[in-house]
User: Fold these one by one.
Assistant:
Number 1:
Amino acid sequence: MPRVIIVGGVAGGATTAAQLRRIDPDIDITIYEKGRDISYGNCGLPYHIGGEVKERDQLIAATPESFMERDIVVRTYHQVTGIDADKKKVQVKDILNDRTFDAEYDYLILSPGGAPRTIPALLDVPQAFVLHTLENLDEIKAHMHNKTIKHAVVVGGGYIGLEMVENLVHRDIDVTLVHRSENLYHPLEPDMSAFIVDELAAKGIDVKLNAEIVEVVGDTVTLSTGEEIDAQMIIAGIGITPRTDFLRNSNVVLNEAGYICVDQYGRTNYKDVYAVGDAIETSYQHLDHPVNVALAWGAHRMAYIISNHISGDKAARFEGLLGTNIIRFFDHDIATLGLQVSELDSYPHFVIDHKQKNKAGYMSDSVPIHVRLHVSKSDGKILRAAVVGTEGVDKRIDVLAAHIRLGGTAMDLANIEVAYSPPYSSPKSVLNMVGYKAIEKMKKLKE
Amino acid sequence: MPRVIIVGGVAGGATTAAQLRRIDPDIDITIYEKGRDISYGNCGLPYHIGGEVKERDQLIAATPESFMERDIVVRTYHQVTGIDADKKKVQVKDILNDRTFDAEYDYLILSPGGAPRTIPALLDVPQAFVLHTLENLDEIKAHMHNKTIKHAVVVGGGYIGLEMVENLVHRDIDVTLVHRSENLYHPLEPDMSAFIVDELAAKGIDVKLNAEIVEVVGDTVTLSTGEEIDAQMIIAGIGITPRTDFLRNSNVVLNEAGYICVDQYGRTNYKDVYAVGDAIETSYQHLDHPVNVALAWGAHRMAYIISNHISGDKAARFEGLLGTNIIRFFDHDIATLGLQVSELDSYPHFVIDHKQKNKAGYMSDSVPIHVRLHVSKSDGKILRAAVVGTEGVDKRIDVLAAHIRLGGTAMDLANIEVAYSPPYSSPKSVLNMVGYKAIEKMKKLKE
């Protein structure tokens, strides 16, 4: 019976284990997880703080015990510290017992995820946290229980930062958002993200742009601007780095940034070593261009592909990712897909910018949606899309994702027969109109 | 300068006229409209009665005067009573002056629309109305202004009927819905539409199934069941028939049901006679199977194609229709596309039935969505889709429309990289899961 070792038991690893077991009742599966927990919905962590997820345990999809019942061996507090892919074994550190041992595999699945970045000034600050794991959540909840939080600082205006701001406000905590550059939420082009500052102001949330924390003494947070802020809690959400140091001395190929390179079956350069989750490098789905996307959709898709591949079904292949993403920020929805703005330069393109009501304009609750496409001049391919609004943004980005995946161009958007009724769309929907604009633009380019 | 005559000035005709003028500032355009108004949003009429469309005039996209300013000649109360396509002229009846004349064209665009069906018992009943035109709306509003409406009867449980029920309830009018068969809203399969009866009951709305109006005397409505209902207003929404009698003696080809047959450019069998709107027969987009879809999306798309074609741009082609449609009924959204249930027999198929929360299940406001696909056994093509829920239905039907249009199969739905964040989806979205179920089903069929 083949032995499968899985490194990391959160999203990618746990899902692969569960799928493998579903396909094959007999295969030997062991998960080594360096932390306390496995298989929880870490995207949901901020929403438990805000109260939209009522019970903490709703975030837990599987426990070591429930996996054990399905004959999946789970070793928590066990960190894989090295691998020997030629000899097909891993080195495991049993953290609680401070011992190390080797374990042999027939198939190895790497799902180490990312490590949250920190800043030096927050090291050893007792009220400073990240929110990356269920353990982090429990620490934060305990801190909020034990201490009166009059004011909190959130560091970083990315998606974790914005979600934390919103959820702390839902808990009636005063928040200051500290962001080191001029523009919040870098997945969005600066002119489109400018509304976030207005939204923060409208909600009475203090924001410090072009600022960093340089020192924390007691409850006093000192910024690089010289300002001092009183804060009983600090939460940093400033991105992750792939947790792949343990692979540095192996022959598993990593890219320059440390992400694990995989093929369409999720295999590394070793045919029996797979990788899944936030620490892999893949390619854009619509372009021959490498990308890493630390989001759950790709992890779940790759888990399916790897588990099927190991079980002998080679039909499912990973198509790469568009990086489709969305966040809610109070009343707004913000979604993008495709290339980052910084990656667009090497692709000759034009821009379609379009604002239209989300439903028939005569409906009293209609609201505007703003769509911006970056479109390849040569063939009309949609290189990048950004959509912002207060209703119906998720619909438009998902339609774009389905459309681009099957080769649909910007012009072709005119042809999508959306469901029209006044509460949902105009007869020429937002995306149809974007398509018509692209057709006009292309005609002009050819003149 | 070519002369264009357009028969019918509502959705299809008015949109074609406006587009033609936009493309060509000089072309000669005349619209003959038998009614009082042109270019109003008739899908929005019910919502003005309910109050979601605040001002009646918001429903008007263009007036005869505004078209005249753009050098589009508009003749209202002018009915085209016959055409001679070989001699390229139409016979026009000037209704107000009771005279008839001929008009010659180089291009003729037929947009006659449909005539609302009636039932004999409602003929000459002063409080009985249909809601098909802006004139109808004005009549109904005048009636509601002049008479106290304690109780209204809506006839027909199709989309107009359901929209009218909801909008009258929003006006605090007691309503009885009379529907002649066992099942409401026939676009949906009976077991999926059963909830509508529960929803009516929950809102305290009386419904009479398997019933028809046989007589109205004063305010007393007598049903085929013998029941009597007191009603100060009766609104019938029981479908339309194509208004193509004026073509019966022409050589323009109609199908058996009286719909005008057109090609991918919107042309009839005469190369200079086009047709658009509710009275045309087209083909399903995904199947070689005729269909007529009396909805606005197709009319707007065809208006674009016809106006471009007349102007010399032959690039845009009508791809046929999926019949993507949606209605809101109180808190529910109901959407379908593709074949009618009654048309499925000739296509060997299997059914995927799937219920899943619209967003991460741990979010306290997550609600279920029900998706049912009818899938071709031979190739996995999605023949028909139905989606019901209280949130996010419009997103799923639009994604399906985009997906099917570009040849995506049911299995292929697993690959759509939707935007995931807990407020919007699960990492494996509703449609992804439908795809995974289809993959399993297909595997079993091949075993």
Number 2:
Amino acid sequence: MTTIDHTHDPAARSCVPGADGHSDFPIQNLPLGVFSPGDGVARAGVAVGDHILDLAAARDAGLLTGEAARAVAAAEGGTLNGLLALGAGPRRALRAQLFALLSAEGPDRDRVPTLLHEASSCSLHLPARIGDYTDFFVGIHHATNTGRQFRPDQPLLPNYKHVPVGYHGRASSIRPSGVPVRRPHGQAKPPHLDAPVFGPSRRLDYELELGVWIGPGNQQGSPVPVEQAAGQVAGFCLLNDWSARDIQGWEYQPLGPFLAKSFATTISPWIVTPEALAPFRIPQPARPEGDPAPLPYLLDHADQAGGALDLDLEIRLSTAASRAAGLPPHRVARSNARHMYWTVAQMIAHHTSGGCNLCPGDLLGTGTLSGPDLESCGSLLETSQGGKVPIRLESGEERRFLEDGDEVTLVARGLREGFAPIGFGACRALVLPAS
Amino acid sequence: MTTIDHTHDPAARSCVPGADGHSDFPIQNLPLGVFSPGDGVARAGVAVGDHILDLAAARDAGLLTGEAARAVAAAEGGTLNGLLALGAGPRRALRAQLFALLSAEGPDRDRVPTLLHEASSCSLHLPARIGDYTDFFVGIHHATNTGRQFRPDQPLLPNYKHVPVGYHGRASSIRPSGVPVRRPHGQAKPPHLDAPVFGPSRRLDYELELGVWIGPGNQQGSPVPVEQAAGQVAGFCLLNDWSARDIQGWEYQPLGPFLAKSFATTISPWIVTPEALAPFRIPQPARPEGDPAPLPYLLDHADQAGGALDLDLEIRLSTAASRAAGLPPHRVARSNARHMYWTVAQMIAHHTSGGCNLCPGDLLGTGTLSGPDLESCGSLLETSQGGKVPIRLESGEERRFLEDGDEVTLVARGLREGFAPIGFGACRALVLPAS
């Protein structure tokens, strides 16, 4: 587990304007990503306030050295895969040197401005080449809510409390925040018809998830023990697992979701490191009385003691009409990352338990992180109870599922007394009409 | 569709010894791959008889020019992704020039020997970096046989004859022929127990599939019409979708197969091109009376007229005991690639119909290609009827599922009167005990 150190000092201030107060990216955060300045090539950077620091430029200026310089060298070529592969040591060295460099009292603070780009004038890219993407299903309230729609008497299938259920997702269609999502065509069979029809999805939905970036990875045939699984985590992001419910309902038997999900996945582009999130570690919530204990290959006491995350999560929705009326996005749900039945370490231990190899830059999704009540549902399928009960927006509009022109934003914040608030940056995309 | 030309002349002979007669790789085949000579770096090559021709060396010698040289240039760096991305034009130019170069009467035949490596002294690699791997389920006899074990009255689910069902597989654990496969550990719940157990799989199985290599790919949001889908196919291979049936049975609800498949997939390392397979194109078998017509986005008359493949398929099994006794591998099944309910073009049109982007070097599996009877089943799950009826090998041993030390080889051959036989090379792997 990552420990608390001077880089978490809430009193620390940055020499970069806007990196204090209510920014997602105070000096205590320092998330890693890949950006292009207005006309430049893609390169590695770190977000601080409203700016992005060019890591290679800082290294070239002699301001990042040793292990930190090694981390920067591994991040060349427009993807962070090489840096993620190095694991915690160089990543932590980079954090420590960046913290010193960007400090309001840092000896080199006068040299920082030449290394910065205004974030608003940069493009943000996927931070790594994603080899494989796996989506889990560890949000137990989501599993229960959606299961109840099909099986009122037995919402959770018999394996749920034994197996961190997951499936392989589509890596090629993952895009960073800001890239619009086109409503997919697909096959669906409405209940009142005898045969399926092909056309634009009529039940387009979002899913609120966390993404987990894999660091060093493992060799095929060599499982990662649960006790070592945290060392495989290079960081976190927000993930919107866009879902076409009508396509999903017709296609998913017997091999699982396919085209209902593969048209697009949106992630927040900054990799928020385990170090930045150390203050927000909490014990894994106790299993309800009567639930089975995890099998030994999934059980590590240190993981149980501090393997969960306390992060506030929100879903915000704006519509064409609400934007025209100048209304702010409507908060359609508020949840928390603690609503995971399995920890990230358990997901990784399970994923590799049969010998499957994870690689640097692989991405895991947690599954939808709904809370226990209707106001904390991470998908419209749940909030609208299968499309039966619309939600009312501040604009006066109603929604059962997403309409063209809707824009969905996911937000995550770590908030804890005695620590600086940490944000993830936006995970946002606009729904375009089917072509 | 690819047409028949002089490169299919069955009378053609190669200047390379062993490239005639019963080789998998006569001059009419010319499959593409990536190999390393004994001590050399990975490079692009073409198989001919018992040899591999170094493509860059041939180009450097001035023996491949124009579009063919462009294809070779795109194949540098130890993967063929760039070549696959170029599509049919450069690939066909390369075939035509290689045919002329390797011909027994070719004007440059004396220069060929310096470009060759003995295949037995080379290592074969994956021919491309596989971004995403998708496995379909188009073998209707397999779907029926396995469905019957769970639902005797309704083996095929209602969507089967409307949707080319598929799911995302694991790309990272795909390995070329020859790499052993370690028996996975995993969770399973035997019927006589109340709770699951974790241990080595006891129901390890093979699956006989064809693999399809994707060529140019498509932009996200821009589906590939079925009429243009054949242009996305860069070639074919054999694919063994190793499956742990006990893990699969417990984990797969509701999101599909995951660890039951992701520990390993074995492919034959040569990309057999659409051009080489042109003689073996046949009409898609007529749908049985009463089956629904494909929806318009899946229906192209040219595809129906010639989109299926007539390829003999075999599964061969040797055991530690049979090898010790000097017995040849036992043929446990013989099938044919024609047993696909959906064509490859339909798979691609469906996969992209919602906007999902395919990329050069993506791999599709067809799903298990069982024939209609017990001798043509592509998995032991079918042959042994769910493990109830063992098969007897020539060694006197019995098998319900695979045992440690078993070696499985998949074989494919195109055989048609008036044409040279075409092979795929072996897709072979040995089962190692769980670690």
